[in-house]
Amino acid sequence: MMRFVRKINFILTIFSIIGLAIACTGEELTNLRGNNETQIAESTTEPAWPGPVVGTNTTPPPAAPSSPTLPEAPTPTFPASPRLNGERVGIQLVLHQSDEDWAQSMLQVERLGIRWIKLQLAWDYLQASGPEEWGENFKRVELHLQDARRRGFKILVSLARAPNWARNTSVEQGPPQDPATLANFLHFLYSRGIGPLIDAFEIWNEPNLMREWSGRPINGAEYMHYFAAAYEAIRHHSSTAIIITAGLSPVAELPHARDDRNFLREMYAAGLANYRDIAVGIHPYGWANPPDARCCSPGPERGWDEHPHFFFLDTLNEYRAIMNFYGHGDVSFWVTEFGWATWEDLWGEAPQAWMSYNSLARQAEYTLRALQIGEQRADVALMILWNLNFGAKEINIDQRDERAAYSLIIPAEYIERPVYWKLREAFTGCIVWDCP
């Protein structure tokens, strides 16, 4: 009965929102942007998570006006989803959740028909008291990883949030004081049997933001000390594990952030091109701009469209140009986060004004078109959608948590949004009213 209700909810939503234009080869919807994870605990057992780009704890990009003028909605249409290859696609989901919620999450991902999942290891949640801690939180992570492997998923893990005992400050989140401490944590993961369960490692999350890199200088050369230590530790145990540089937040120079393009150049100046058996992580968020739009024709009443950082395709192309310049042209991207946020079906005021520019239909349209672009590019090895279920708790919406705007699953018995069903159709061919 509940699945029937979910399908009816989806179908009614589709007929009440802006029509999709998935094929989107000529006509583009223009003038639109955003991004996510703020520090709000989802349950008593789950750690809080900071967001990828714009959140209440960081300086945002230039603001849009408080009362944006939205474009007139076209006549609703509902074309079929393009067929996509799920082998090159994954999704990030909550790792630290109850066994029951984990099983529900796994079922939802299995039905999507994709191959990869991404999980973020909150190091401070796992080893709050010291480097040898192996408690219940760690044991539950082990069980969840084992379950994902049994189900046939490949696993990407992002390392983040060093515990306070390893840092020189307790302000915000950041890396350990000594890169060797990060290497020791990786050795510990392998010694406990967790390392071999992981197919790919992303070495930190958005270190060009103060809230993710507090306590250490925010520049690419400093980050490379940590990348080098982590690389050597992983290669000590595995010659086949995929090692990925941290996806950077697409942001300009701000008091608490380093421009991601400049940060990447600093990484190359510090020797990144010497690593040939790696991938470069990238977070090409699009805010409210279509994925194949290019900068810049800013709208006078919109904002978040006046700089290349706000555009999915510009970020991909500018990173590729930097990589080619430094002799890394044969190295692939791993899109370790991307997505479009909407607050249309959620209560209260949207956390960021640009989220009101995206409808549920546009969220689905832009997501599928971005996946098409990635599939057509030889330099994109994998794309990880942000996110499955970081908006599945009502408290996240009550507190205007930006993660909920990106989430494929929302409260009310974990209802799937239209983007979920359109993705399922694209990967499996299962249309909403025919899906089991």
Summarize the topology:
Elements: H1 2-14, E1 89-92, H2 99-112, E2 116-122, H3 123-126, H4 136-150, E3 154-160, H5 179-191, E4 200-203, H6 210-213, H7 220-237, E5 242-245, H8 260-269, E6 280-282, H9 312-325, E7 333-338, H10 360-376, E8 380-385, H11 394-398, H12 402-406, E9 409-410, E10 415-416, H13 418-428
Parallel strand pairs: 1-2, 1-8, 2-3, 3-4, 4-5, 6-7, 7-8
Antiparallel strand pairs: 9-10
Helix pairs in contact: 5-7, 7-8, 8-9, 10-13
What does this 3D model show about the protein?
The chain has 436 residues and is an alpha/beta fold. The protein has a single domain, classed as TIM Barrel (Alpha-Beta Barrel). Helices cover 33% and strands 10% of the residues. The protein has 13 helices and 10 strands. It has an 8-stranded parallel β-sheet. A two-stranded antiparallel sheet has the order 9-10. Helix 10 (360-376) packs parallel to helix 13. The chain starts with a helix and ends in an 8-residue tail after the last helix. The model is unreliable at 1-6 and 14-78 (pLDDT under 50).
Write out the strand line-up for the largest beta sheet, numbering strands in chain order.
Answer: 5-4-3-2-1-8-7-6
- The CA-CA distance between the termini, in Å, is 12 Å
CATH superfamily: Glycosidases
Give the overall form: globular
Total DSSP helices: 13
Instruction: Kindly state the number of beta strands.
Output: 10
